[in-house]
Amino acid sequence: MRHMPLVLDVQNLSVALGGHHALSNVSFGIEEGETLVIIGPNGSGKTVLLRTLLGMLPSTGKIEWNPSARIGYVPQKIEADRHLPISTINLLRAKAKILKFPDSDILHALHSVGLTTRIAQIPVGHLSGGEFQRALIAFALLGKPTILLFDEPTASIDKPGEEQIYELLHRLQDEYRLTAIVISHDLSFVYRHATKVLCLNKVNVCFGTPKEALDIHMLETLYGGPHKYFHHLHDHTHHS
C-alpha cells in the first residue's frame, strides 16, 4: 500500500502553561487528504494542541509541516459584539485585501459554504449559530488552504444544524482536496468521516484508525468511566 506524503509530523510534543503540563510527549502524523479527529474529555489539551500546531503557544518536541501546506483555522467561536456593524462580507473583504485576492474569491468562498450575499451583509452578532460557523469556514477557505483545523465546529449549533455542518466539511474536503484536523465530541462523526483518531488526555491515549484504536475499554480509560458516547460504539459495531 502506497502512503501519501505526511502533511504534518508531530513527535514528542510537550506544552507547559503556568507551570503545569498541558500536553506531554504527544506524537502522531497525518497524510495528505486524511481526516484526523481529536477526542478527549474537557481539559485534555485538545484546543491547546491546535493552538500549538498554529505556532500560538511555546512547545518542545517536533512539529513539522509539509512545506506545501497552507493552513486554514476555524476557531470554536469568536465573541462578536452584537452592536458592532461588522458583517461576514466586511471580514472577507479585509482578508482578501491583505492577501490581494479578487472579489470573485470572496463570492466563491460564500457559495462554497452555502451563504447568500444577503446573509453575508448581516452583522455577525445577529447570525444564527449555523450561519456564523459557515462564515468562519468561509473566512478560513479564503486563501486556498490545503489543510483546515476545526475546533469543535458544531459546539454552538443545534442537533439538526450539526449534521449539516458535518456534511459541509465532508463536501469541502472532496471539493478542495483538503486534509482536515477536527476536534469533536461526536463519535458517530469519528466513525463516518475520520481516517485517523487521536485520543487525548494530556498524553496520547490512542492513535490510529477508528476501527483499530477505539473500543469500550479505551473509551473508559480516556473518559474515566462509563460514557454517554458508548452507545455510538455499540451501534457502529452491530451495524458494520
Number of helices in the DSSP assignment: 10
CATH topology group of the largest domain: Rossmann fold
Shape: globular
| Helix content percent band | 25-40%
- Rg computed from alpha carbons, rounded to a whole number of angstroms: 18 Å
Overall tally of structural domains: 2
Distance between the termini: 23 Å
Just give the CATH class of the largest domain: Alpha Beta
Question: Under the CATH scheme, which architecture of the largest domain would be assigned?
Answer: 3-Layer(aba) Sandwich
Number of strands: 9
Looking at this structure, what is the CATH superfamily of the largest domain? P-loop containing nucleotide triphosphate hydrolases
**Poorly predicted sequence stretches spanning 5 or more consecutive residues:** 230-240
| Structural classification | alpha/beta
What does this structure look like?
By secondary structure, the chain is α/β, with parallel strands linked by helices. The protein is built from ten helices and nine strands. It has a six-stranded mixed sheet with strand order 5-6-7-3-8-9, with helices on both faces. The protein has a three-stranded antiparallel sheet with strand order 2-1-4, with helices on one face. A hairpin with a 3-residue loop joins strand 8 (196-200) and strand 9 (204-208). Helix 2 (88-99) packs parallel to helix 5 (129-141). It starts with 5 loop residues before the first strand and ends with a helix. The relative contact order is 0.17. Mean pLDDT is 88; it is low at 230-240.
